[in-house]
Every structure is written in structure tokens, then in C-alpha cells.
Design brief:
membrane; transmembrane; mainly alpha; Synaptophysin/porin; 236 residues; two-stranded antiparallel sheet
Length: 236
């Protein structure tokens, strides 16, 4: 069971959520259809039309949706169109969702059946990290462009992909090389400190030994001290 979404070594579960939310994104937007109902009430009730149905759907080229309304001047009718064109942002949003779905599906297959190839030469994690960053950016752009459509799943996909960046980055060689770079100076510092302490101890022991050796007079000097007064007495 995929209970933890962002587990560091649970790539299959994370891609399951990517697949799920990508499906929700392009299904809710690409399969959306709606409608309006207008009412035109004229003074002459026979010319009124209280039920004018207008249908629209993805990709929301509203300026191409036309309908006819009575002019309240006899039987004449006027052809009108809705205002707005949201096709570019809607199509971009759906395109990002489709490609995110396809990549998540391919990544899931690689994680399950080609795990050794994925980690070989650190190429798989690097590609996965770069693609995850790109899709996070695309989800942000697409969701912002389609924000007027109140598409909640776009921002949820951005949060999901952006939150996955750190865990994909930990699988790359950039993260491991950074850890080695931080650990090497600390090891060198500790080894130099231990070496300095050893030299200091050895130096202290040797200097102490030399000082003890030089404290007392030598046997020759001790023997020569009484000869001074003896020779002085003989001269007197």
C-alpha cells in the first residue's frame, strides 16, 4: 500500500499519485462541457423566447459559440456570439497533464522492472530530477494560466511534483557528492588535530627527560669542587 506519498525510496507510490492527479487534471478540463440558458422577454409576448440554450465545451473558444435571439421587432432574429477565448491556456493545461501522465507511466515501469538500469552511472536519477523540475514549472505556468477556470487539480499537481523534487534530488550523484565534500574537510581537521596532539605529547616527554638529565651535576664536576680549597691551603 502506498500510504506515504513522499517516502525517500518509494518512487512507485509517488508515480501512482502523479498518474492519478494527471488523469484528474486532463479529464476534468478536456472532458468539460457546459451550457447557458437565456431569456428574452419582449413587450409583445408572442415575440419573446424564454428558453435559449447555449452549449459550449473544451477548448472553450467562446467567440465561436453562436446563438440567435429575437429582436422584439416582429419575427426578426439576431445572431450573437459569446465573448472570450480560453483555448490556448486550456490546451496548454491539458497538454501538460497528458505528458505528465505518460512520463509517470513510463517512470513507474522503469522503477519496477529496470531498477538496476535506472541507477547505473547515476544517469537515471539525474534525468528524473531534471524532468521533475521541468514538470513542476510547467504545472505552475499551466495552472496560473488556467486559474480563471478554477481548476483545482492543476495546483495540486504542482504541489505534488514540486514536493517530489527533493526526494528525486537525493537519488542523484549531486547530493552524494555534496555530502562527501562536507565530510572530507571534517575528517582532515580531526586527523590533523590528533596528529598534533601526538607530537605535542612526544615533545613534552622528551623535553622532560632532558631537563631531568641536566638537573644534577655530573660526576666530574662533583669531583673537582673540593680540589679548589685544597690547592689554596697548600699555597698558604
Amino acid at each position: 500500500m502506498c500510504m506515504v506519498i513522499f517516502a525517500p525510496h518509494n518512487e512507485e507510490c509517488k508515480n501512482h499519485f502523479h498518474l492519478l492527479f494527471a488523469i484528474f487534471a486532463f479529464a476534468t478540463c478536456g472532458g468539460y462541457s457546459g451550457g447557458l440558458r437565456l431569456s428574452v422577454d419582449c413587450v409583445n409576448k408572442t415575440e419573446s423566447n424564454l428558453s435559449i440554450d447555449i452549449a459550449f465545451a473544451y477548448p472553450f473558444r467562446l467567440h465561436q459559440v453562436t446563438f440567435e435571439v429575437p429582436t422584439c421587432e416582429g419575427k426578426e432574429r439576431q445572431k450573437l456570439a459569446l465573448i472570450g477565448d480560453s483555448s490556448s491556456s486550456a490546451e496548454f493545461f491539458v497538454t501538460v497533464a497528458v505528458f505528465a501522465f505518460l512520463y509517470s507511466l513510463a517512470a513507474t515501469v522503469v522503477y519496477i522492472f529496470f531498477q538496476n538500469k535506472y541507477r547505473e552511472n547515476n544517469r537515471g536519477p539525474l534525468i528524473d530530477f531534471i524532468v521533475t523540475v521541468v514538470f513542476s514549472f510547467l504545472w505552475l505556468v499551466g495552472s496560473s494560466a488556467w486559474a480563471k477556470g478554477l481548476s483545482v487539480f492543476g495546483f495540486l499537481n504542482f504541489i505534488l511534483w514540486a514536493g517530489n523534487i527533493w526526494f528525486v534530488f537525493k537519488e542523484t550523484g549531486w547530493h552524494s557528492s555534496g555530502q562527501r565534500y562536507l565530510s572530507d574537510p571534517m575528517e582532515k581537521h580531526s586527523s590533523s588535530y590528533n596528529q598534533g596532539g601526538y607530537n605535542q605529547d612526544s615533545y613534552g616527554s622528551s623535553s622532560g627527560y632532558s631537563q631531568q638529565a641536566s638537573l644534577g651535576p655530573s660526576s666530574d664536576e662533583f669531583g673537582q669542587q673540593p680540589t679548589g680549597p685544597t690547592s689554596f691551603t697548600n699555597q698558604i
